[in-house]
């Protein structure tokens, strides 16, 4: 369905906002007058964006969320609080955008730029009350940064995409800070209150000062003790209780929510108002495989060294006396060997598997110390091998990339008994 658009994924990343600056006005500045929020950071921006979308949906009828990448369906990138948006809807928007733009310009646009324009145009046509955009890479030249956001959010900063963002924390933080708008506040995640976040915080605060933007650091005790926060925190507990990181990101999202709604009286909460975003799937998510003798998996989309470190923290807290086995797939453009160095300190045995993706790793990418690891050409092959010697006392962890977790979800989607396991995290594989 999306062959033409997906063909653009094979192209090189094009670090520039100039193409968006040309295309956006030609489409009529879609979404320009709608209050919007930009959410960036190395890790945690997807869950934070999802939490904010869920919170705003309790108070407003039409709230849009644009996130990336998707797990199974391309349409997962586009969430509306008031209706479903499927692949056909996305394709129709893509065709309209292609028809509205000069052929040469459309051909120059990257995959992510077209995907972002689809969100902007769809949000405009739905007449949303708020739009939330998850930044793709960096910030300064990311396609989402064409949005004149009401406020910006930066969840964390760590080494990732160094080829495009820089080789130091200071350089990457400067790129992330590019989403801060003149005179508009920026909200920082709890990472920036830690010693590890000090250097990045200083860089971001300098950029904010130059743009007369107020800086808010999340995690104040007064916020956690407020009545509205306690009520909403308890209401959304099923979504954030899986890990301390999710709780921190919920707190950050609530702080932004509190800023946006101000003194507006809170609407009465009921179960029908619970909007569960796709962006919470695969965040340290347990999965019981009922048709496989109740075997248990833990899915995690960690895709860089900082994400692996957080996964290690969760595993050690939950299984301190046990060593868990793992099925792992890391994309070739990531720090595959440093990530495996960390993962081998947590899990044993480790089984690697490849996926149907243009960025899937190859055995040639493995350093000498990892060359002996078992490698399978697909998740199905790896799965068939590990279930033959399954130890029911511990779950297997599946991790390494969003794309890998997506393939695992798709693999098990034919099992109708899995539907209930995915509803909590926002993915129903029977759809």
Structural description of this entry:
There is one protein chain. The chain is α/β, with parallel strands linked by helices and 431 residues long. The chain has helices spanning 3-6, 18-26, 45-57, 87-100, 103-108, 111-126, 162-165, 169-176, 198-210, 221-224, 227-235, 237-240, 244-261, 305-318, 336-343, 379-386, 402-412, 419-423; strands at 36-40, 63-66, 78-80, 130-134, 151-154, 186-188, 215-217, 285-289, 295-300, 324-328, 347-353, 374-376, 396-399. The two termini are 17 Å apart. It contains 18 helices and 13 strands. The chain has two domains: 3-280, Mur-like, catalytic domain (UDP-N-acetylmuramoyl-L-alanine:D-glutamate ligase), CATH 3.40.1190; 285-423, Mur ligase, C-terminal domain (Protein-Tyrosine Phosphatase, Chain A, Alpha-Beta Complex), CATH 3.90.190. It is globular, with a radius of gyration of 21 Å.
Keywords:
431 residues, UDP-N-acetylmuramoyl-L-alanine:D-glutamate ligase, Protein-Tyrosine Phosphatase, Chain A, 2 domains, 7-stranded mixed sheet, 6-stranded mixed sheet
């Amino acid at each position: 369905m999306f062959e033409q658009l997906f063909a653009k994924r094979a192209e090189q990343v094009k670090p520039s906002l100039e193409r968006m600056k040309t295309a956006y006005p030609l489409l009529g500045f879609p979404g320009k007058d709608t209050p919007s929020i930009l959410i960036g950071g190395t890790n945690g921006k997807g869950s934070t964006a999802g939490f904010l979308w869920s919170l705003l949906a309790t108070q407003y009828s039409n709230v849009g969320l644009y996130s990336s990448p998707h797990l199974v369906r391309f349409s997962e990138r586009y969430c509306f609080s008031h209706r479903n948006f499927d692949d056909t809807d996305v394709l129709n928007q893509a065709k309209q955008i292609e028809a509205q733009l000069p052929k040469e310009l459309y051909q120059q646009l990257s995959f992510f730029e077209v995907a972002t324009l689809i969100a902007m145009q769809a949000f405009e046509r739905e007449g949303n009350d708020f739009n939330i955009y998850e930044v793709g890479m960096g910030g300064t030249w990311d396609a989402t940064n064409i949005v004149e956001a009401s406020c910006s959010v930066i969840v964390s900063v760590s080494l990732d995409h160094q080829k495009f963002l820089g080789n130091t924390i200071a350089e990457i933080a400067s790129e992330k800070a590019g989403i801060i708008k003149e005179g508009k506040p920026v909200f920082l995640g709890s990472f920036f209150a830690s010693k590890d976040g000090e250097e990045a915080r200083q860089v971001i605060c300098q950029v904010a000062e130059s743009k007369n933007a107020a800086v808010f650091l999340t995690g104040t005790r007064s916020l956690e003790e407020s009545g509205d926060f306690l009520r909403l925190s308890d209401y959304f507990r099923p979504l954030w209780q899986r890990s301390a990181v999710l709780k921190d990101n919920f707190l950050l999202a609530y702080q932004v929510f509190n800023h946006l709604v101000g003194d507006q009286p809170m609407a009465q909460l009921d179960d029908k108002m619970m909007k569960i975003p796709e962006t919470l799937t695969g965040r340290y998510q347990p999965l019981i495989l009922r048709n496989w003798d109740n075997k248990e998996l833990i899915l995690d989309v960690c895709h860089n060294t900082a994400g692996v470190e957080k996964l290690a923290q969760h595993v050690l807290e939950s299984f301190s006396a046990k060593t868990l086995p793992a099925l792992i797939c890391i994309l070739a453009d990531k720090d595959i060997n440093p990530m495996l160095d960390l993962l081998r300190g947590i899990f044993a045995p480790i089984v690697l598997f490849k996926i149907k993706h243009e960025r899937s790793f190859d055995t040639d990418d493995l350093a000498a110390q990892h060359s002996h690891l078992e490698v399978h050409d697909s998740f199905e092959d790896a799965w068939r091998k590990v279930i033959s010697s399954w130890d029911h006392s511990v779950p297997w962890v599946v991790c390494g990339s969003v794309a890998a977790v997506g393939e695992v979800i798709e693999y098990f989607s034919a099992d109708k008994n899995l539907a209930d396991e995915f509803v909590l995290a926002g993915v129903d594989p029977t759809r």
